[in-house]
């Protein structure tokens, strides 16, 4: 057994961390948050230049083929720096869906573009202010066209294409590839708890689209994509949790009250110890899930749900209590605490919230042999 | 990253598995499987007799304390082989529960500080459990504040004379030897006036009284010392260096206890799998599912954290204080699980009669035993302090006793 990342993987992580530390300060995050840009183009271009958009894309499709363990560590750093880019939508969702279910022609067309950052993709699923169910999907695909509305699509406003969950004439669900540049799509920005990430509603008025791959088995395919993406989102959450904890600890060491650093008070120490515990549990579960993802282990659905549940808990706790450690200053616009708080709650709801992943975890537990 | 065995690991696993299959006390399998919280259950057989038999058998075949050097009764095995052995030994490992303190904590302390002659004399018998050891640290006035201990050791010729009292000593009543931390100089600040010894528990002047615990069982003892003489040759470390020695013991405590720590998750999972609630099947109840998911994620997190620590060990790195999270998470979780498990069973949940209660009343036993898990071996609060100060680097709590001679420290009485 060797439960650790390799030297090469760690070097890549450090390289990404150095780049983001230089290029993705909170000033960059705030420029998107405050509406000055739809996303951080320089950060995005840098990630593309480093080949990171093609991390898990095989070389035959223009990628780097470095694999999922590397991609997990990239995701962790993107989370740590709150990178305001469409990386997660394009890489964890659109690229994964294509790799898993795309036809040869679709892969040949889109994957090299995704790897090279020439195209940004996303996944369009949600139609209502409710947990998404298969029965509730109303957007229709018929005669080669999509008609209907997706209420909120991550990075919908900056994507070149979307993979859209839609109902076909037979009543089943399929994933459909739609070129958003082709016209006929009305994009409307949606305000969310985290404006540092682009959120857009997409209205399709008879837009040309084609089935992703050959089988219209959209709901099951979506679950497969989600299981894989959940691991990568969990790594983003892990990175965010670590940064929020670091911020709290740094502040508690230098802020004085009652003649001593506030970090010497047990009330705050114990809060930060609990943040650390949540972070460590999430980290270990994420590492295991990274292994399950990279090896296509049958344990992946359970491992992904486990990583997702504990990383969601960790980031939400660390972001929330980072504000508490900062006291009144933590509630100012000026301090960065709210950036983590916003992002933690935004990431929680990507792919469905904590309640849905807890439910999936227990379902996977019931179907598998695993017991911790 | 690779979770499979290497070829050598697989070979070792096969060897261990074959030996266990041939030699394990299978007549105890049923009772051991049902053993939960509190003492190990061995049915009609005496638990200590069975534990010593199994340990002796392992020792004779070279499967006891396998990570120790061969000359001290071990096998010179790697940390990873030790993990594999524990996995393969499975429920039979529960038999060795009474030896964990001696083998997991006293022995590393002896290896680090005892004379060569004493190591050769004591370690092999510790490995085979021919002699059982305990650890005499806590006192009525010094639990979390261990360095505030008061048991006195005074030099008298070639001996030291011990007077005072220890408490919460696990297994003192069936121990042959113990390591003992004492105060040898009350006129210096508290951490500097301590000295460690080991002693024969049958020495004149040692009196052991079992404590009746809140759960009705008695696993711990009070130990009184009345002019007990210990030869200076049984001193461990320097005079006044006892605190440093105790850190070796306590660091190994985290390893000994932190590894395959019980969380209660398998028990609650087994319970709800077969349970019906007023609203339908328990496993389909949203509140049950949410809690199960949370507890599974925590217990998987501990298991995976432990696997990472093993990887670090196998690369020659020392496990750090971050391993304090194990008991902190498991203790509270076990208590929550037990409370919730009873809650799902109506008034019948209060029944502790193993003939009447679900799952031989294991969850009721867990409810009554779990408060101690959050106290023994470092309270939840002390563990949080350790994480905050030694992992996160937060400033120390201001201490009212810092730099003051022990004899001048306010004691409140």
Quick tags:
heterodimer; A: 372 residues; alpha+beta; Butyryl-Coa Dehydrogenase, subunit A, domain 1; Butyryl-CoA Dehydrogenase, subunit A, domain 2; Butyryl-CoA Dehydrogenase, subunit A, domain 3; four-stranded mixed β-sheet; four-stranded antiparallel β-sheet; 11 helices; 10 strands; 52% helix; B: 413 residues; 12 helices; 14% strand
Q: In the CATH hierarchy, what is the architecture of the largest domain in chain A at level 2?
A: Up-down Bundle
Which spans of chain B have pLDDT < 50 for at least 5 consecutive residues? none
**Can you count the helices of chain B?**
12
CATH superfamily of the largest domain in chain B: Acyl-CoA dehydrogenase/oxidase, N-terminal domain
Number of domains of chain B: 3
Strand order of the largest sheet of chain A: 1-4-5-8
Named at the architecture level, the CATH assignment of the largest domain in chain B is Orthogonal Bundle
Please indicate the count of domains of chain A.
3
Tell me the number of strands of chain B: 10
The rough form of chain A would be described as globular
Largest interface: A-B, 48 and 56 residues
The percent range for strand residues of chain B is 5-15%
Strand order of the largest sheet of chain B: 1-4-5-8
Approximate shape of chain B: globular
CATH class of the largest domain in chain B, anyone? Answer: Mainly Alpha
- Structural class call of chain A reads alpha+beta
What is the percentage of strand-forming residues of chain A? 5-15%
- Kindly, what is the distance between the CA atoms of the first and last residues of chain A, rounded to a whole number of angstroms? 18 Å
Quaternary: heterodimer
CATH level 3 topology of the largest domain in chain A? Butyryl-CoA Dehydrogenase, subunit A, domain 3
Distance between the termini of chain B: 57 Å
């Amino acid at each position: 057994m060797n439960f650790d990342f390799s030297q090469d993987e760690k070097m890549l992580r450090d390289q990404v961390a150095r780049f983001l530390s230089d290029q993705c300060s909170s000033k960059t995050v705030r420029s998107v948050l405050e509406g000055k840009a739809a996303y951080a183009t320089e950060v995005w271009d840098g990630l593309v230049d480093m080949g990171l958009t093609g991390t898990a894309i095989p070389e035959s499709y223009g990628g780097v083929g470095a694999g999922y363990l590397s991609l997990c560590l990239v995701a962790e750093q993107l989370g740590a720096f709150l990178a305001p880019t469409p990386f997660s939508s394009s890489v964890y969702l659109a690229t994964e869906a294509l790799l898993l279910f795309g036809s040869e022609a679709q892969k040949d067309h889109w994957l090299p573009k995704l790897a090279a950052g020439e195209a940004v993709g996303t996944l369009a699923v949600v139609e209502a202010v409710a947990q998404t169910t298969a029965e509730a999907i109303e957007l229709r695909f018929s005669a080669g066209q999509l008609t209907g509305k997706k209420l909120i699509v991550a990075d919908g406003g900056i994507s070149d294409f979307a993979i859209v969950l839609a109902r076909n004439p037979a009543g089943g669900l399929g994933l459909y590839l739609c070129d958003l540049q082709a016209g006929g799509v009305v994009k409307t920005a949606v305000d969310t708890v985290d404006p540092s990430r682009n959120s857009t509603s997409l209205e399709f008025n008879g837009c040309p689209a084609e089935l992703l791959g050959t089988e219209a088995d959209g709901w099951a395919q979506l679950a497969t994509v989600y299981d894989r993406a959940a691991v990568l989102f969990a790594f983003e959450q892990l990175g965010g949790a670590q940064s929020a904890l670091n911020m709290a600890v740094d502040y508690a060491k230098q802020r004085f009250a009652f003649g001593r650093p506030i970090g010497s008070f047990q009330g705050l120490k114990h809060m930060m110890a609990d943040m650390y515990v949540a972070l460590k549990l999430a980290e270990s579960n994420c590492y295991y899930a990274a292994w399950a993802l990279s090896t296509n282990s049958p344990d992946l659905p359970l491992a992904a749900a486990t990583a997702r549940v504990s990383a969601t808990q960790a980031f939400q706790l660390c972001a929330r209590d980072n504000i508490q450690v900062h006291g009144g200053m933590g509630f100012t616009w000026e301090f960065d605490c709210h950036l983590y708080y916003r992002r933690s709650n935004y990431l929680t709801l990507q792919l469905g919230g904590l309640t849905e992943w807890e439910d999936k975890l227990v379902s996977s537990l019931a179907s598998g042999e695993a017991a911790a | 990253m690779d979770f499979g065995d290497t070829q050598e690991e697989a070979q070792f696993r096969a060897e261990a598995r074959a030996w266990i299959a041939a030699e394990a006390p299978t007549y105890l399998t049923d009772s051991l499987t049902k053993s939960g919280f509190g003492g190990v259950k061995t049915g009609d057989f005496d638990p200590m007799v069975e534990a010593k038999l199994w340990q002796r058998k392992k020792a004779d075949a070279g499967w006891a304390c396998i990570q120790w050097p061969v000359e001290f009764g071990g096998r010179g095995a790697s940390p990873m082989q030790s993990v594999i052995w524990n996995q393969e030994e499975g429920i039979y490992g529960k038999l060795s529960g009474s030896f964990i303190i001696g083998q997991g904590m006293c022995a590393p302390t002896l290896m680090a500080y005892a004379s060569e002659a004493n190591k050769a004399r004591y370690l092999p018998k510790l490995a085979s459990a021919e002699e059982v050891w305990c650890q005499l640290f806590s006192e009525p006035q010094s639990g979390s504040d261990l360095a505030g201990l008061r048991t006195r050791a005074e030099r008298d010729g070639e001996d030291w004379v011990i007077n005072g009292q220890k408490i919460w000593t696990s297994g003192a009543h069936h121990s042959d030897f113990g390591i003992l931390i004492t105060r040898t100089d009350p006129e210096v600040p508290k951490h500097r006036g301590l000295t460690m010894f080991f002693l024969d528990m049958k020495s004149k002047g040692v009196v052991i009284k079992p404590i009746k615990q809140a759960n009705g069982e008695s696993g711990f003892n009070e130990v009184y010392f009345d002019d007990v003489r210990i030869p200076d040759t049984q001193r461990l470390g320097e005079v006044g260096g006892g605190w440093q020695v105790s850190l070796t013991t306590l660091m190994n405590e985290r390893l000994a206890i932190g590894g395959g720590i019980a969380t209660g998750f398998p028990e609650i999972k087994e319970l709800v799998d077969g349970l019906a609630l007023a609203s339908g099947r328990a496993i389909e109840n949203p509140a049950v599912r949410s809690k199960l998911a949370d507890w599974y994620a925590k217990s998987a997190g501990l298991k995976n954290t432990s696997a990472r620590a093993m990887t670090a060990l196998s690369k020659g790195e020392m496990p750090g204080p971050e391993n304090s999270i194990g008991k902190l998470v498991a203790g509270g979780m076990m208590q929550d699980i037990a409370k919730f498990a009873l809650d799902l069973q109506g008034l019948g949940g209060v029944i502790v009669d193993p003939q009447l209660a679900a799952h031989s009343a294991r969850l009721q036993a867990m409810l009554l035993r779990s408060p101690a898990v959050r106290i023994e071996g470092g309270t939840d609060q002390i563990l949080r302090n350790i994480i905050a100060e030694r992992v996160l680097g937060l400033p120390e709590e201001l201490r009212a006793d810092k730099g003051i001679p022990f004899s001048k420290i306010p004691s409140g009485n």
